[in-house]
């Protein structure tokens, strides 16, 4: 009998690939750029990503002694900010599927004198290896575009945050102003790949970046996904006219 099962597909940038292949393709991208990831972030955003991440950390409302999970936490920028909030008696977990990114994050935290109360765990954001209601806040910054199933990832983040805790997502988004959008497209598809190739030697990784942004849901659609995951009072703030957006939801 003919097998009529249809292989499920998803986006990897502008390419349509089998769902089973996306995780490996994403891992390959970040394996090759991990050592230059922070430098590229500074160059691409002219350092403003650091201000955006501070805004994310402020929205967690974390207090000394509390706990937090940073999904797709990679090189640890957000985790370091939250470690400063929860103090020596608190606990922050950097959670990432990519081992090379976690290595870079651990080196950075050691260099800055932050290691006590910080854990680095390799795992998939669509199946988080912590019990229900574990953390006071769960964050994801510039990493949610890389998961295969957004709904599963947000359901998992909602599952592991405590009732009353916050799930916060900082991600590149969709520009509203037509003129700004045109300028941003030129910058994204010309300047970023050229700089990426010069710094990391991997142009394809920085072609994937703007392509994945264009495939990402709109601000309103992402809000709906977070609401469907069980979060309450989900709101968002556009940054630089929608170049990025900060979404905040509360677990009931």
Please characterize this protein's 3D structure.
This protein has 252 residues and is α/β, with parallel strands linked by helices. The chain has a single domain (9-16, 33-173, 219-251), classed as 3-Layer(aba) Sandwich (Rossmann fold). The chain has helices at residues 19-33, 37-45, 48-59, 77-86, 99-111, 150-160, 178-200, 203-215, 219-228, and strands at 9-12, 15-18, 67-71, 91-96, 118-122, 135-141, 161-172, 231-239, 244-251. A 7-stranded mixed beta sheet has the order 5-4-3-6-7-9-8, sandwiched between helices. Strands 1-2 form a two-stranded antiparallel sheet. The chain is globular, with a radius of gyration of 18 Å. The protein starts with 8 loop residues before the first strand and ends with a strand.
Which key features would you list for this structure?
single chain, two-stranded antiparallel sheet, 9 helices, about 250 residues, Rossmann fold, alpha/beta, globular
Counted by DSSP, the helix tally is: 9
Helix content: 40-55%
Distance between the termini: 49 Å
Low-confidence stretches: none
Biggest sheet, strands in spatial order? Answer: 5-4-3-6-7-9-8
Radius of gyration: 18 Å
What's the domain count?
1
Shape: globular
- Fold-level CATH name: Rossmann fold
CATH class: Alpha Beta
Question: What structural class do helix, strand and pairing data support?
Answer: alpha/beta
Beta content comes to 15-25%
Q: Output the CATH homologous superfamily.
A: Vaccinia Virus protein VP39
Specify the CATH architecture: 3-Layer(aba) Sandwich
């Amino acid at each position: 009998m003919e097998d009529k099962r249809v292989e499920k597909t998803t986006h990897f940038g502008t390419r349509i690939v089998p769902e089973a292949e996306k995780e490996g393709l994403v891992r390959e991208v970040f394996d090759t750029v991990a050592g230059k990831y922070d430098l590229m972030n500074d160059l691409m955003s002219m350092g403003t990503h650091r201000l955006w991440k501070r805004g994310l950390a402020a929205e967690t409302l974390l207090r000394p002694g509390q706990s937090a999970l940073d999904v797709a936490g990679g090189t640890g920028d957000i985790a370091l900010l939250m470690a400063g909030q929860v103090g020596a008696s608190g606990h922050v977990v950097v959670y990432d599927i990519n081992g090379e990114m976690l290595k870079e994050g651990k080196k950075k935290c050691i260099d800055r004198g932050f290691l006590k109360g910080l854990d680095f765990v390799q795992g998939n954001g669509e199946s988080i290896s912590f019990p229900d209601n574990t953390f006071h806040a769960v964050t994801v910054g510039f990493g949610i575009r890389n998961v295969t199933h957004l709904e599963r990832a947000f359901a998992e983040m909602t599952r592991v945050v405590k009732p009353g805790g916050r799930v916060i997502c900082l991600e590149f988004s969709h520009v509203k102003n037509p003129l700004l959008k045109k300028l941003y497209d030129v910058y994204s598809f010309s300047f970023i790949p050229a700089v990426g190739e010069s710094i990391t030697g991997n142009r394809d990784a920085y072609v994937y970046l703007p392509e994945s942004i264009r495939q990402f849901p709109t601000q309103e659609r992402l809000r709906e996904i977070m609401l469907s995951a069980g979060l309450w009072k989900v709101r968002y703030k556009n940054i630089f006219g929608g170049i990025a957006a900060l979404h905040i939801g509360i677990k009931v």
